[in-house]
Amino acid sequence: MKYDVTIIGAGIVGLATAYRLLQKRPGLNVAILEKENAIAAHQTGHNSGVMHSGIYYKPGSLKALNCLQGYREMLEFCQKYDVPHEVCGKVIVATSKEELPLLDSIFERGRANGLKGLSKLEPEALREIEPHTAGIAAVWVPQAGIVNYSRVAAEYARQLKVMGAVLFTGEKVRQITTCADKSVSIETENNEYTTILAVNCAGLYADKVAEIAGQKLNVQVIPFRGEYYVLRPEKEYLVNNLIYPVPNPAFPFLGVHFTRMIEGGIEAGPNAVLAFRREGYSRWDFHLGEFAEILAFRGFQKLAAKYWQIEIGELHRSFSKKAFVSALRHLVPDTGMDDLTRGGAGVRAMAVGCDGNIVDDYLIIEGKNMVHVINAPSPAATSSLAIGDTVAETVLKKLP
Known about the structure:
Layout: E1 2-8, H1 12-24, E2 30-34, E3 50-51, H2 62-80, E4 85-87, E5 90-94, H3 100-112, E6 119-121, H4 123-129, E7 137-141, E8 145-147, H5 149-163, E9 166-169, E10 173-178, E11 184-188, E12 192-200, H6 206-212, E13 219-231, E14 242-245, E15 257-260, E16 266-269, E17 273-274, H7 288-296, H8 298-319, H9 321-329, E18 340-353, E19 363-366, E20 370-375, H10 384-398
Parallel strand pairs: 1-2, 1-12, 2-9, 5-14, 12-20
Antiparallel strand pairs: 3-8, 4-8, 5-7, 6-7, 10-11, 11-12, 13-16, 13-17, 13-18, 14-15, 15-16, 19-20
């Protein structure tokens, strides 16, 4: 069978793209190929479950615009299909005078992005919201929420089945070629699929899929692992909802924080350490070829030269529970070594340019008969319907 559109990758962005396509043009023959035996197996399934408000992102950037739109759409979707979620709010906490200008900058970004109800908190007001949190000032973000993105993805898949899309699991893409009639042939380990247009939403392997298709790139996906600890049930009283630090502007991650989960429990983390393979969820996961490719990439070498001191600290926290807890105690001083047990981990796909700079915004590249979502970092889960809308519009313009 020849499909109109075939999407490679059944993570939350790939599923949301298919969902938006069929909303915009019902009746399209849409196929989704997933290399694993289940959907949402990687970044989506290891997500912390935060519904981001858009406070951090540069006004006017794709991240900011898609987060603001996607946040509203995510709420509507969850409400419509009874996906458990909660808008609980969060505090961003400054623990030193040096962080106050950065906290003010975040507050102003939130206002510029149109967030309502933001407020600056003095220590007394902060402790009314989070009694066990230490800080000299904070910003209250009422829009932040929590959800299980695996359940969101599962609901996308259920709706896609009703809409007529077909999902194939266990189909790892090996080759992509353009046929004489300008259709696309996608060969997997098991089958061959023919489609008018293909969409690459392969996440941690998006650059690899693009290269298979003949797309020239000046970026490479670098995997960063984020590890979590979990508060013991008897210590969950230390955290009411979401407690975040002021992010380090010299490092493109938000820092370790506390997150209440929609299905119960409190996670603490993540750190951000280089993974030794693209799907390296354990400190011991290693793939010689993938790791060698990372080290050989000039862009990574430049990135490492820029951030090596910070990354050593992140790596130290990966192997030292004491160091990890020390970072958490800046936010919640009563956190003890025995209060935490090691939890899960996720791997972020971060596109890095040849110049050594992390691609901070979404990167969507058009080929002749393909659309490649090369970079979709956090808050991509929150923004999935908005990103899917953008990709779907691009696809529909290319379809005959």
